[in-house]
Task: inverse folding
């Protein structure tokens, strides 16, 4: 399930740019959302359109262009990884992450002006909950902070290719398709 935050009835930017002509094993979903008001709060419901794709939208954020180039080159070995944008500025990164809502985010911790941890905290309420964040840094002293920020993983620079391979394997195992056949809805809706 690929969730997104957006306006009611609006298709998120990240869905528009996807290539849905690929095949299984991974599945993505896109929806046209309608808002319903219940006594307990708002609920966003939609018909679900099954979009078979194995594309993993990825963003890399690092203030060092050589590190971006190296990671992008290593990620190019994976046919399902699609790097949609790279950013060297935390402010530009914040805009692009919120706009594109990637599946996988590689985020440097130490950057001028704003740390990766601060960046993630700043945009947390504007990103979907199933975005997998990998803190990507030369410093292990941020590991505990990364865990507290709900990081999916922590990759130390310089990394070994085996570490990156294992990370991508773990990611793939976390995004297995979800079944919604047992979804139940309240019987009374306030419109």
Result:
């Amino acid at each position: 399930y690929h969730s997104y935050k957006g306006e009611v009835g609006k298709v998120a930017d990240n869905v528009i740019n996807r290539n849905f002509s690929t095949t299984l094993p991974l599945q993505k979903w896109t929806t046209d959302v309608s808002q319903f008001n219940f006594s307990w709060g708002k609920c966003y419901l939609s018909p679900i359109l099954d979009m078979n794709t194995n594309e993993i939208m990825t963003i890399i954020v690092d203030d060092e262009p050589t590190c971006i180039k190296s990671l992008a080159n290593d990620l190019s070995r994976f046919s399902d990884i699609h790097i949609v944008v790279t950013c060297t500025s935390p402010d530009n990164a914040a805009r692009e992450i919120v706009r594109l809502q990637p599946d996988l985010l590689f985020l440097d911790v130490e950057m001028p002006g704003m740390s990766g941890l601060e960046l993630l905290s700043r945009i947390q309420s504007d990103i979907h909950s199933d975005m997998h964040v990998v803190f990507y840094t030369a410093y292990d002293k941020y590991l505990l902070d990364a865990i507290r920020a709900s990081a999916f993983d922590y990759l130390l620079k310089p990394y070994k290719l085996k570490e990156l391979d294992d990370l991508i394997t773990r990611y793939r195992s976390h995004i297995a398709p979800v079944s919604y056949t047992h979804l139940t809805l309240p019987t009374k809706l306030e419109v």
Q: What stands out?
A: Helices lie at 13-16, 65-75, 90-100, 116-123, 143-148, 161-174.
